[in-house]
Each structure stands twice: as structure tokens, then as C-alpha cells.
Specification:
The protein has two domains: 30-143, no CATH class; 149-276, GMP Synthetase, Chain A, domain 3. The chain has 281 residues and is an alpha+beta fold. A hairpin with a 2-residue loop joins β4 and β5. The termini are far apart. The strands form three sheets. It has a four-stranded antiparallel beta sheet. Strands 7-8-9-10 form a four-stranded mixed beta sheet. α6 packs across α9. 43% of the residues lie in helices and 21% in strands.
Length: 281
């Protein structure tokens, strides 16, 4: 009789342990502990920003996530908000978050809106990888973002324009058009640790010289390429410089960068080269 009671006791204990393990697994979706998985007031605020349905919000109001997908959408958006807020000092709100990777990529697509400062209203994009693999934290979270572009592109473009200005001064007014643009791309943390004045960011600089407006020969105009390139190479900027030399611009509706680009973008430029001084400070 005593042995039977002991067997029943051991069986009950095993059932309790198994039930406890199941509860622990349910409360640890995606590697979160029970405490980390609890719905917070901030979660509710971000869920509203993401436009969750009434049913989803009702579930969260009762303390339960509608599904692991919604939890990831909210928590990934929060991680991105915290990262950018610390990095740039602005307030952000959530616009969208996929909550799960696409195809074989591990990164989530997140869109935020800047809510304070001079860039308020701008939307910024991130690729966020939480570093989780099969429920385990295998690497540090990674953030690739284009808020760096929003904050810094005017400075990058100003520095590029200033660099080539002395060379432009050698040509008659109205004989050329220029284009300077920092690339709007998702920059990793390693490329956003420096301001553009110390090598941060990438971009493109273009110059179009109209021979019929300046009196230069093609070879003379082409010789200016090295001067432009040297001027850019002397800066801390990184990017691609290209030169177009046009013999006749009379057929263009106007001699502007947009008009030239619409006609000639499919054609190779006269010359192009990547510049990167690698200087810091």
C-alpha cells in the first residue's frame, strides 16, 4: 500500500513538473521570461501607434498578447525607438513593423516617425535583427538605419559642393551643372559612429560640362576630371564622382541637372571614380 502511494506521489510530482515546464515555455515565447513577456503600458501605446485591431488591443488590455507576432512587432519597434532616441536625441513613434524576417533574412523591417526636433514628421527606416536564433540569444542586436541620412545629408552635400567650388570657378557661368547627394541607404552602426565631417556616410557627386557653352574642347574638359577628383579626395567624404561632357545641349528643354539626367542617365559618363580619403578629423 505504501509503495503504491509513493508511486502515485511520484506520478503527481512528475505531472506538476511537466505542467510547470509547459507554462514556462508558453511564457518564454521568443526567449522572453515571464516578466519580460508581460504586457506593459508602453506596449499598449506602441501597439496603438502600429494600428493594431480592436480585438488585438482588447487582448492586450486583458494582459495577453494576441500572438507572438504582435509581441515581436511591438518589442522590435520599441527596441528601434530606444536605439535611435539614444543615438540622435529625438522622440520617435512607431509606424510599422513586420515582426518577423522575410525569406532567409533575420532582420525585421521597422518604420518610425521623428516626433521632435528639426526633422519632426520625417519617417525613417530600419532593419532590426534581435540576434535571436532558435530561441537563443546568439549575437548582439543589429540596427541598420537611414535616420543618419536624414540628420546628415545636408552637411554631406554642403561639404561636397564646397570642395569642388574652386574648380567650378574656372568655367564660365551657365556652362555646367552639378549634383551632390548623400546616399539614402540603411547605414550600419559602424558607419554612423562618425559625423560626415570625419568620414561618415556615402554619396555621389556629378558634374556636367557643356562644350557649346564654355568653349572648351572635349580633352580640355576631360582634364578637369582629375582636378575635381583631387578636390573631393582631399575631403573626409566617401562616394562616387562622375563627369559628363556634352558637345551640344541645344536639344535639351533646359540646361539643368534634371534635364540632363533624364536624357543621359542610361549612357556611361565621360569618366567616374570612387573617392575616399580615409582621413579622420
Amino acid at each position: 500500500m505504501a509503495r503504491g502511494m509513493k508511486r502515485h506521489a511520484r506520478g503527481a510530482a512528475a505531472l506538476v513538473a511537466a505542467a510547470g515546464l509547459a507554462v514556462a515555455l508558453v511564457l518564454s515565447l521568443g526567449g522572453c521570461s515571464a516578466g519580460e513577456n508581460a504586457v506593459t503600458e508602453r506596449d499598449l501605446e506602441v501597439a496603438r501607434q502600429l494600428g493594431f485591431s480592436d480585438d488585438a488591443m482588447a487582448s492586450m488590455d486583458s494582459g495577453a498578447w494576441p500572438s507572438d507576432l504582435e509581441r515581436k512587432q511591438v518589442r522590435h519597434a520599441e527596441a528601434c525607438i530606444d536605439y535611435l532616441a539614444e543615438r540622435y536625441g529625438f522622440e520617435f513613434s512607431a509606424v510599422s513593423a513586420t515582426g518577423e524576417p522575410k525569406w532567409l533574412m533575420h532582420a525585421d523591417d521597422v518604420v518610425l516617425r521623428i516626433e521632435s526636433g528639426p526633422f519632426a514628421g520625417e519617417e525613417v527606416h530600419l532593419k532590426y535583427d534581435d540576434g535571436m536564433r532558435d530561441g537563443r540569444q546568439e549575437m548582439e542586436p543589429r540596427f541598420d538605419e537611414d535616420c543618419y541620412y536624414v540628420v546628415n545629408h545636408e552637411e554631406w552635400e554642403r561639404l561636397a559642393a564646397e570642395a569642388i567650388a574652386p574648380v567650378l570657378a574656372e568655367l564660365p557661368e551657365g556652362s555646367l551643372v552639378t549634383f551632390t547627394s548623400m546616399s539614402r541607404q540603411l547605414y550600419p552602426e559602424s558607419m554612423t559612429s562618425d559625423p560626415v565631417s570625419q568620414g561618415g556616410g556615402n554619396g555621389e557627386v556629378g558634374v556636367v560640362i557643356a562644350l557649346d557653352r564654355c568653349g572648351l574642347s572635349e580633352s580640355e574638359a576631360g582634364e578637369l576630371f582629375d582636378e575635381f577628383y583631387a578636390a573631393l579626395q582631399a575631403t573626409p567624404l566617401r562616394g562616387r564622382f562622375y563627369l559628363r561632357v556634352l558637345s551640344d545641349t541645344s536639344s535639351l528643354p533646359e540646361f539643368s541637372w534634371q534635364a540632363v539626367d533624364e536624357v543621359y542617365r542610361p549612357y556611361r559618363p565621360f569618366a567616374s571614380r570612387w573617392f575616399s580619403s580615409g582621413k579622420k578629423g
